[in-house]
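Technical annex, item 7. During the second reporting period the consortium partners agreed on a shared format for inverse folding records so that results from different sites could be compared directly. Each record opens with the tokenized structure and is followed by the designed sequence. A conforming record, contributed by the partner at site C, is shown below for reference.
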């Protein structure tokens, strides 16, 4: 097998702590499976601003382009909160998504049976939750033109962001979502605000057209406000959800409550630069962000990063069987009662970030 190159961008806050644990597990996979991985680190976010003045240095972008996959931590933090819009750490991530054309963001939210009590929601509500949010990632309000703030001489101001989508952008993410749904329970919920927004009317029209090629997948359209309510009231009714960028940002954070903790949620951002959306250089990141309140303490949950590494194996390296071993390793460690602080319950054993990484790495190795 050729050596696979993985760009490693830990970024800021707990990104610096959880990404080494994901690499620990990937090294075990390489050793046990005979695959060969080369890891090369790049600066991004606040860490890059401090070193180079900007959130995404050219060298990092080139490294990403030349890699088979990108393992990304998180960006941002109070230190850079007052930076001008274009120079904020988040711009580094947004530019990567846009320039690599990573338009399909897969965010699975699963409630592991042993973590049911970690969710603030009742057992009867969350038990059995297993859903996938497919968030469009390179369009909508995040990137629409025009955007900007106009300052008037009288001291007042006017700010604009534009929600904009072409039918092509909608169609390609819809296809990815239908493909995902087809491999799951064959139910797709398309989320929009078609009762108010014309963008959503086009969204609904295009998704309905794409559905014709997927007669085996049941499609429903749900308004975003109603979806937000249903997600916490009846989460098990959902299988695959597809939605535009901003709605997906919000709904995927809400879905974290179903999984017990943000620290459990991985993601994959697949792109259009490869022969298929699954074969371009894709980016894998935990959904949790930099968590400045716990950063540097060694207590962050590395499971989201480790599950992101599993998605990397599955989607970018065609190593689905190995991805399953990583996922099974995580389940075994949870079954044995080890917990980081975010998912702590009575009767479990408290562990820190690197101990959790060690435990999972050991279980994964034992599965070969
Ligand atoms: C996410 C984050 C990002 C987003 C930020 C960090 C730019 O909230 O990945 O959900 O808004 O997309
Ligand atoms: Mg978000």
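Designed sequence (site C submission):
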């Amino acid at each position: 097998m050729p050596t696979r190159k993985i760009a490693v961008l830990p970024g800021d806050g707990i990104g610096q702590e959880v990404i080494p644990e994901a690499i620990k597990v990937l090294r075990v996979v390489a050793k046990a499976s005979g695959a060969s991985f080369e890891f090369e680190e790049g600066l991004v976010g606040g860490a890059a601003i401090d070193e180079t003045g900007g959130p995404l240095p050219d060298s990092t972008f080139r490294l990403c382009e030349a890699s088979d996959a990108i393992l990304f931590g998180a960006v941002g933090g109070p230190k850079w909160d007052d930076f001008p819009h274009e120079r904020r750490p988040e711009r580094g991530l947004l530019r990567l998504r846009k320039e690599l054309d990573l338009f399909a963001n897969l965010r699975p939210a699963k409630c592991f049976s042993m973590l049911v009590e970690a969710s603030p929601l009742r057992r009867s509500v969350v038990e059995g939750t297993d859903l996938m949010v497919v968030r469009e990632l390179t369009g909508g309000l995040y990137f629409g033109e025009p955007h900007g703030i106009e300052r008037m001489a009288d001291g007042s101001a006017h700010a604009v962001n534009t929600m904009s989508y072409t039918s092509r952008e909608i169609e390609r993410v819809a296809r990815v979502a239908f493909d995902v749904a087809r491999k799951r329970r064959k139910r797709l919920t398309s989320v929009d605000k078609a009762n108010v927004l014309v963008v959503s009317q086009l969204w609904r029209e295009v998704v309905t057209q794409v559905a014709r090629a997927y007669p085996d997948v049941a499609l429903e359209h749900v308004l975003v406000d109603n979806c937000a309510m249903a997600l916490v009231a009846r989460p098990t009714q959902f299988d695959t959800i597809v939605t535009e960028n901003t709605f997906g940002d919000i709904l995927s954070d809400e879905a974290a409550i179903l999984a017990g903790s943000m620290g459990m949620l991985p993601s994959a951002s697949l792109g259009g630069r490869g022969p298929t959306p699954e074969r371009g250089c894709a980016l894998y990141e935990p959904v949790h962000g930099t968590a400045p309140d716990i950063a540097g303490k060694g207590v962050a949950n590395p499971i989201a990063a480790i599950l992101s590494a599993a998605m990397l194996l599955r989607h970018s390296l065609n190593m689905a069987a190995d991805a399953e071993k990583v996922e099974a390793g995580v389940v075994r460690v949870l079954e044995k009662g080890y917990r980081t602080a975010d998912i702590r319950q009575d009767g479990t054993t408290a562990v820190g970030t690197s101990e959790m990484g060690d435990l999972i790495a050991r279980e994964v190795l034992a599965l070969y």
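Residues 119 and 260 are 4 Å apart (CA to CA). The domain at 1-112+261-368 is CATH 3.40.718.10 (Isopropylmalate Dehydrogenase). All partners now use this format for quarterly exchanges.
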